[in-house]
Design a protein that fits this description.
With 125 residues, this protein is mainly alpha-helical. It folds into two domains: 42 residues, no CATH class; 67 residues, no CATH class. 50% of the residues lie in helices and 10% in strands. The strands form two sheets. The protein has a two-stranded antiparallel sheet. The protein is globular, with a radius of gyration of 16 Å.
C-alpha cells in the first residue's frame, strides 16, 4: 500500500516537509531534555533526526501513519487507505514506521524483519 501512495508531488498541491514534523519533535525533546534518562543520548538522537530529515534525495508524498487499522476493504480497489497524514520526505520514513507497527516480529527476529522490509520497499541496505 505504501509504495502505491508514494508519488512525487506536482505544483498544484503543497505538502509539509517531514523536516517540519521532526523539528517539532526535536523542540519538544529539548524542552524536556532533563527528564530523559540520558540527556546526552537524547541530544545525539536529535542530531541524527536532523541529519536524516535533511538528507532526502527522493522525496515523495508520505502517509506517515499507515497501519492496519487505516486500511479498509474497498469496492473499486481491493484496499483503501484512510486517515493519511501527508508529508513530503524520504520513503524510508514510512518504511521505518511500518517496522515499528510490526514490533513483535521486529523484537523476535530483527534481522529477517528488517531485511524483508528493505526488500519489499526496494530500499538500499
Amino acid at each position: 500500500m505504501l509504495k502505491r501512495l508514494w508519488r512525487k508531488p506536482n505544483e498544484t498541491y503543497s505538502f509539509r516537509e517531514l523536516a517540519e514534523m521532526i523539528a517539532a519533535w526535536n523542540r519538544k525533546t529539548l524542552e524536556e531534555l532533563e527528564s530523559w534518562p540520558d540527556p546526552g543520548l537524547a541530544k545525539e538522537g536529535i542530531r541524527i533526526r536532523e541529519e536524516l530529515a535533511t538528507n532526502t534525495p527522493d522525496s515523495v508524498i508520505l502517509a506517515t501513519e499507515l497501519r492496519t487499522g487505516n486500511i479498509l476493504r474497498a469496492e473499486q480497489e481491493p484496499w483503501l487507505v484512510i486517515d493519511p497524514k501527508p508529508f513530503l520526505g524520504d520513503p524510508a520514513y514510512d518504511a521505518t514506521q511500518h517496522l515499528l507497527n510490526c514490533l513483535q516480529r521486529l523484537e523476535s527476529d530483527p534481522r529477517s524483519t528488517i531485511s524483508r522490509n528493505l526488500e519489499l520497499f526496494e530500499i538500499d541496505h
